[in-house]
Structures are given as structure tokens and as C-alpha cells.
């Protein structure tokens, strides 16, 4: 029992380590000239190949349940989860930094909550403590994001930076405006990606109800998303050389992202959710945010400002506050369902005894 209890957090720390590695490798590959759309296409092809054996072994019988409705919802799932969310995220990552883009992945639960409230599939419940905590956590997250984006302050020289570059290259004054424009464009891409990820989660919840598959859903989503991105990619990039894979950093990034970030992470997160529920995995997102910020500065030379630290702290506090409120809400809902089932059982029992 104790060993299993230790395996749960260990698995989530491994997931965070894989995510950090994916983020840094992707930033290096994009900075080296790799196209974001090409990275999206090949990553999902590798991911589908990695998950397909699990689908054939564990969910072979579900192949018969794939119909036009399932394919329609899977296509919507791929459009928002792969083509828009992942593709836009890579474009945002190319124009910003690994640490900056990691913030927006932590905002996905908050944005999902806001969209659910707007769609009236979830209530604020401000009369309850957990409802107030969720709203307060969301405000903290957005306040922290604004601080990181708008308030810089003094640079913190905490350790040697830019170890993978050999030395840190300062930005000339003539290119400072261009760099700022790239950050603004990258921020817009990341915001759009965050919204697409949130819509993807809502669509995925609907897809699970009509097609309760873990592995085939992933395989089909990755394949359809790859086809969509491939069509868009050939329209944007006609150079065949950009689509050729070689034994270099690009192939390492694609295989790592596809096999580990989709294959291994999928299995680990699914197992953890089955043991501790959907709130447990996001509780470790702060590890991803902090470690990616440190390694982005240490290895790639991204400056850490006072505003970055203050904003990151607010985001972490807001995320934990929101998750605590969501967890309490799920407990209350589960208790209410248990009471209703018990009451229904008591009403049916005398009828069964007659």
C-alpha cells in the first residue's frame, strides 16, 4: 500500500520531467528553424504509432463501435486539440520563451472553467466556499499572468545563464522593438492555444460519452490532426526540404514528443486519474512551471525578472486555490449523489420485499 502511494507522486513527477524535456527540445528545434506545423504533423504521427499497439491489444473490440458520429466528434477533437491548440502553441513558443509559454499551459484549467460557466455547463456557486475559492484562484492566475507579461522590473542574476549557447547574447537596441513585437504576436498565439485547449477538453468530455475509448480516441485524434495540419502545412510551406527528417535535433524532438510526451504520459496520467481522480495530476503543474523557468534561464539564457517571480508565485497560488475549490465541489457533488442513491434504494426496498 505504501509503495503504491509513493508511485502516484513519483509518476506525476516523471510526467512533469517529460513535459519540461519536451518544452526545451521543442524550443531548441523551433529556434534552429524547424517549422511549427511540421513539428505538429510529425509529432502526432509518431504519437499515433506509439499508442496504436495499446489500442490493438486492449481495445480491439471497440473498433466495431466507430461510426460517423464518432468520427465527427473525433474530427472536432483533433481540430481543437491538435491543429489549433498544439499548432498555435508551437507558433507561440517560437516567438517567446519556454518559461513564458509554460504559464499558458497552467491556465488551461482556469480558461476551461470560464468557458464552462459561459456555456452554463458549470455554475459559479459563489454562495459556497469552494465557489469563491475557484473564482479567487482564477483571478490570482490571471493577475500573475499580467504581471509576467507586463511587469518586468530588475533582472535577477541567480546563476550562470545560456549554458547551451556558450554565452548570453544581449539584444541590440535596434532589434529590441522587433523582439517586443514577436513577444506580442507569440502571446496572442499562446492565448488562442489556451482557449483551443479548453474547448478541446469540453469536446473530449462529450466524445468519451459516445465512444468510451482511451487508446483509439488518441490514435484517431492524432491521425486526423496530422492530416489537417499536413494540408495547412503544404499551403504555408512549399519547400520539400523542410519536411525531410534527418538524424538531428528535429528527429529527436519529434520522437521524444510523440512517444514519451503522448505515449508514456498518456498511460501514466490515465493510471493516476483512475486512482486519485482528475484533480490530482494538475496539482503538480507548478513543478513544471518552476522547473521550466529555471532550466530555460540556465540552459537557454532567458532572463528572469522580479515580475516573473512575483507573477509565477501568484499563478501557483491561484492554481492550487482553484484546484482545492474544484476538489471540494466534486466531493460535495459525490456526497449528494450518494445520498440520492441511498434514498432511492430505501424507496425501492419495500417494493422488492412484497
UniProtKB/TrEMBL annotation:
Subcellular location: Membrane
Bilayer topology annotation: Multi-pass membrane protein
Xref: Pfam families: EamA (PF00892)
The entry's keywords: Membrane, Transmembrane, Transmembrane helix
Keyword Transmembrane: yes
Lineage: superkingdom: Eukaryota
Domain EamA: 14-149, 186-322
KW Transmembrane (keyword) present: yes
One cellular-component annotation, GO: membrane
Family: Belongs to the drug/metabolite transporter (DMT) superfamily. Plant drug/metabolite exporter (P-DME) (TC 2.A.7.4) family.
Name of the protein described by the UniProt record: WAT1-related protein
Organism: Urochloa decumbens
Species lineage: Eukaryota, Viridiplantae, Streptophyta, Embryophyta, Tracheophyta
